[in-house]
Amino acid sequence: MSDGKGYLLRGGVLLTQEAARPALVGDLLVTKGRIQALGAVPPEAVPAGVQVLSAHGCAVLPGLVQGHVHLCQTLCRGAADDLPLLAWLRERLFPYEAALSEEDITLAAQLGTAELLLSGTTAILDMGTVHHQDALCAAVAATGLRATVGKAMMDLAAAVPPRLRETTAQSLADSDALCQRWHGKENGRIRYAYAPRFALSCTERLLSEVAERVNARGATPPLGRDPGPRIHTHAAEQLEEIELVRTRFAA
């Protein structure tokens, strides 16, 4: 929004999320990436170089959070929306992801993040596909979004097309390397989540080893410390999937 020296929004309706004063008309001063003042900010309190913008008639609120998104799928939007989940994955989504090049992934992420930012979204949890995760991470990092990202992990060969198949060892090794490269980057703005796609595309060994990795690194850190990588997966999306999971795991 500015050249890095900060900005001042004048005269907006500030939605503070505070119980004592949930909304007020006033100014919002941000410098060094942090809110410095709410309410009436006199001209003499505005540091030199701060960009001043009018927010009259506008609501000013914290950025929205997108709790689950697939940026890599942006270019597949609207394809076969009439199909149920598993048929959609098998007939449309998996073949689409298998065909994506590194350039495709970058373009999909750039378009998806632009749409998110225009909607007021400033933080996302994203699951990529099996390949080209570095390209997706780089595209997201360049936008300024806060993002938790991770490559999709799929090692159950019968469930996915050849281009998306991984061995268990390969999936874990690639994810470990990505976590090492990206978790905590951009001053903590980019974080990593191991992303076993869902139970029907992953072996029990993969699921258990992902859990072991995350538990080992995320054991109750002190307040304010990085809790380590997370797990991002799908569960109970559709009745047919639920029944197949119950059958497989005899639940």
Structure summarized in a few sentences:
The chain contains six helices and eleven strands. The protein has 251 residues and is of the alpha/beta class. Helix 2 packs parallel to helix 3 and helix 4 packs parallel to helix 5.
Number of helices in the DSSP assignment = 6
Spell the H/E element sequence.
EEEEEEHHEHEEHEHEH
Spans of 5+ residues with little confidence (pLDDT < 50)? none
- C-alpha geometry: elongated
Radius of gyration: 21 Å
Largest sheet, in brief, is: 6 strands, parallel
Overall mean confidence score, pLDDT:
93
Q: Which structural class do the helices and strands define?
A: alpha/beta
Oligomer: single chain
What percentage of the residues does DSSP assign to strands (E)?
A: 15-25%
- Number of DSSP-assigned strands: 11
Roughly how much helix do the residues carry, as a percent range?
25-40%
Query: What is the end-to-end distance?
Result: 51 Å
Describe the structure.
This protein is of the alpha/beta class and 251 residues long. The termini are far apart. The radius of gyration is 21 Å and the shape is elongated. It has helices at 85-99, 102-118, 133-141, 168-182, 204-217, 239-249, and strands at residues 7-15, 23-31, 34-39, 51-54, 59-60, 64-69, 121-127, 146-150, 152-153, 190-196, 230-231. The mean pLDDT is 93.
Keywords:
251 residues, single chain, alpha/beta, 6 helices, 32% helix, six-stranded parallel β-sheet, elongated, 24% strand
Explain the layout of strands and helices:
Elements: E1 7-15, E2 23-31, E3 34-39, E4 51-54, E5 59-60, E6 64-69, H1 85-99, H2 102-118, E7 121-127, H3 133-141, E8 146-150, E9 152-153, H4 168-182, E10 190-196, H5 204-217, E11 230-231, H6 239-249
Parallel strand pairs: 1-4, 1-5, 6-7, 7-8, 8-10, 9-10, 10-11
Antiparallel strand pairs: 1-2, 2-3
Helix pairs in contact: 2-3, 4-5
